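Hey team,

Filing this mostly as a record. A colleague (T.K.) asked me to run one chain through the structure pipeline before their review meeting, and I want the input and output archived in the tracker in case anyone asks later how it was produced. No errors, nothing strange. Just documentation.

Input sequence:
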Amino acid sequence: MSIDQVKKTSVLIAGAGIGGLAMALSLLRRGIDCDVFEQASELREVGAGLWVSMNGVRVLRDLGLADQVEQNCIAAERRSIRLWNTGETWSLYDRSTDAARNQPYLLLRAHLLKILVDGVRRAKADAIHLNAHVVGFSQSRDEIRVRLADGREIEGRALIGADGSHSKVRTGLIGQIESQYTNAIAWRGLVPVDRLEPYQREPVVSTWIGPTAHVTAYPVRWQDTELMTFSGQVDRNDWLLESWSEKGSVEECLKDFMGWHPDIIALVSNVESLHKWGLFVRPTLADWSQGRVTLLGDACHSMLPYLGQGVNMALEDASVLARCLEQHPDDPARAFQTYQSLRLDRTTRVVNSAAGMLPIFHNSALSRAETAGDYIRTQWAPEATAARYDWIYQYDATAVPLH
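Output structure:
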């Protein structure tokens, strides 16, 4: 089916990222017709790892994807906090303990994207439309009309903007929102494990924390190859480009981690591809639904990566929104207002909590051996970790009451 043949009764979704595809699959599994419009000419991801925590895992199970994800992920044996320069280690959880109930799925973003694409196409072979950039819309009492960059227009009964932090749907709803640079950048890359020493290949999530930077490293699998992810955030006031795909150099990255433990230097030195981007924030929205239009994921609540919850919030959004549309199939405006009322407080709290993690990860107490140990034992004690994470992981988007 071509774009010109999209049914006027279809729910239109802008963006075929993880949030948009999870939204489409959630709707199709409930018998609600939808079409996804993606500006790219092919569905691919710049190489990066992600973790899906238990709140996201529940959504994947509800979508019937848990088995496929488990076949492609690596189960972490442990999670540890490590000191930036000495490598001293403090355990956060071990799979043999009760704390492992919140163990994440570790996998490549590209893997999850492919699993979702395949799921959507099994449900509706022609649901995803490429080279279809949603740039605007208009709505009436009875329909939504979406405008694409090439001038084509598509009619539907509702529009969901899952088109990321630079969302055109959001701009059409509430105007331009300026972003603010946080004086921090992020590095990300993948390292083939055969370039590392055997002890560096273990299935462990390691978060290295320091005075002005931190690094998270964990293994992922691509086909028959194991890779180690490198994700580093660094305090820097000289980076002003908000881009997820800017190429970075190993030499520049090494300068940001000068004096760090040899394990981190080895990761950076052996990275296969390296990208960097500036970390920006936008004000939280008080309203992201109007009539037959709503937003999802980064389009309405983009967040800093310090809790690893961007993908998980998008999965939660998709599940709750699909359930709301199922409950009010003939009244998308009501469904969207219900969805917003259920998600606004939670996502705002997660956004604020993610931003509040920066001084936990980057702290001057970590610069001296005599203060670092006490700091980590206090900030990363079991009770502190539980208070920080458990309320996020325990949420079940597939069962939250719709009222």
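Quick notes for T.K.: The chain has one domain: 3-178+283-394. The CA atoms of residues 68 and 115 lie 7 Å apart.
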